[in-house]
Design goal:
The chain is an alpha+beta fold. The chain has one domain. The protein has nine helices and twelve strands. Strands 5, 6, 9, 10, 11 and 12 form a six-stranded antiparallel sheet that branches. α1 runs antiparallel to α3. It is globular. The structure holds protoporphyrin IX containing FE (HEM). The site of protoporphyrin IX containing FE has 29 residues, from β6, α7, β11 and α9. Keywords: Heme, Iron, Lyase, Metal-binding, Oxidoreductase, Peroxidase, Signal. Involved in the recovery of exogenous heme iron. Extracts iron from heme while preserving the protoporphyrin ring intact. It catalyses: heme b + 2 H(+) = protoporphyrin IX + Fe(2+). Pfam families: Dyp_perox_C (PF20628), Dyp_perox_N (PF04261). It is found in: Cell envelope.
């Protein structure tokens, strides 16, 4: 229920212990006016500063303003605590250069080299209508009403400057981002997040998550955010054997221990044999995603979703995968390429894709999202 500090070196919502709920929204800028874009980012920062502290989006508030004008807050979070709300903003490649090559805001020269559209991967079933975006806002909180309220008010403030391109709700964190958190389970019933990068990993975060001095100046201390909406084929998974499920992941379903080990946090050891065979199959998800074989690490911060059913009697459910890394090319893209032989692929389909550069943290009350860029 506590407030997460809004100001800092890095944006909150990256190594902040993952909250339980997500409302993610991708937006397109509908104006060519740089001034309007700057004003929006300033207004958003002010509203985010207030809402993450548990206050109304505007200074007057939901019910204390002029009764003949629309209130500057929509009201559904009145009386609710901050609930760990974090708001994290990112800039998509199309903010710098539109898909048809226009440089609307004079930002083309400032696009960081790693900020390019993700390549396509074998098996992708990406729907462009729920992919990409000029801007994104990741709202995480321990109360879904608080996350939805925050996104709704930021979208309201953006009227005339941005329009919502797509959005996604998530209901259960599928990773831990701090050693103090118990590992949650994903919709396949497995503990997820055991071997994740965590807030306590200091220098490893500098190496893999935070943008350093080898990238655009304005992005130093920021990070790249990759989202993938991954449909999980629940029905085939549920009719596969426990043994098949465990060999697909490479860990046991009960404790989450690596196959061949005893406890959840026992080290992953690819040399351990059981009955003469490697305990962790070479086609398992953990084998292929592990830094030893993928050659890199990412910080995972995804959420489960169930968007109803698909009209064919199957749950439209899965993982809204979110990863943070200092370079998408040596982060998500490298891991995902290594997963092409992953046994898990039989049970999942990627249906949306996006990449954003998240600027560093807002330092103080005079600072605003993207100031160093704009
Ligand atoms: C580990 C599930 C997609 C990267 C794991 C683990 C599970 C899991 C159960 C083991 C526990 C852990 O260490 O966190 C899933 C499911 C997915 C999915 C159900 C799709 C619906 C992805 C994708 C990537 C990825 C798309 C990146 C491209 C990783 C990494 C690890 C991991 C890096 C840690 C491996 C290690 O160091 O041992 N995943 N995952 N996962 N996953 Fe996934």
């Amino acid at each position: 229920t506590d407030a997460v500090p809004f100001h800092g070196e890095h944006q909150a919502g990256i190594v902040t212990p993952a909250q339980d709920r997500l409302h993610f929204v991708a937006l397109d800028v509908t104006t060519d006016s740089r001034e309007d874009l700057v004003a929006l980012l300033q207004d958003w920062t002010a509203a985010a500063r207030r809402m993450t502290a548990g206050q109304d989006a505007g200074e007057v508030g939901a019910v204390d303003g002029d009764r003949y004008a629309p209130p500057d807050d929509t009201g559904e979070a009145i009386g609710l605590p901050p609930s760990g709300l974090t708001l994290t903003v990112g800039f998509g490649p199309t903010l710098f250069t539109t898909a048809d090559g226009r440089d609307r805001f004079g930002l083309a020269v400032r696009r960081p080299a790693p900020l390019v559209e993700l390549p396509s991967f074998p098996g992708d079933q990406i729907d462009p209508a729920i992919s990409g975006g000029d801007l994104c806002i990741q709202a995480c909180a321990n109360d879904p009403q608080v996350a939805v309220h925050a996104v709704r008010n930021l979208v309201r403030i953006g009227a005339g400057v941005v329009s919502v391109r797509w959005s996604q709700l998530g209901f259960g964190r599928t990773s831990s981002t701090s050693n103090g958190q118990a590992t949650p389970r994903n919709l396949f019933g497995f503990k997820d997040g055991t071997a994740n990068l965590k807030a306590e990993n200091g220098s490893t975060l500098d190496r893999f998550v935070w943008v350093g001095d080898d990238d655009a100046d304005w992005l130093r201390g920021g990070s790249y955010l990759v989202t993938r909406r991954i449909r999980m084929l629940i029905e085939p998974w549920d009719s596969s054997s426990l043994d098949e499920q465990q060999r697909t992941i490479g860990r046991t379903k009960g404790t989450g221990a690596p196959l061949g080990q005893r406890a959840e946090f026992d080290p992953v050891d690819f040399t351990t044999r059981v009955d003469g065979e490697f305990a962790i199959p070479e086609t398992s998800h953990v084998f292929l995603a592990h830094p030893t074989n993928a050659g890199t690490a990412i910080l995972r911060r995804g959420y489960s979703f169930v968007d109803g059913s698909d009209g064919l009697g199957r749950l439209d459910a899965g993982l809204f995968f979110i990863a943070f890394q200092r370079d998408p090319g040596t982060g998500f893209v490298q891991v995902q390429r290594n997963l092409r032989r992953d046994a898990l692929n039989e049970y999942v389909r990627h249906t949306s894709s996006a990449v954003f550069a998240c600027p560093p943290g807002v330092r103080d009350p005079a600072d605003w999202w993207g100031r160093a860029l704009l």
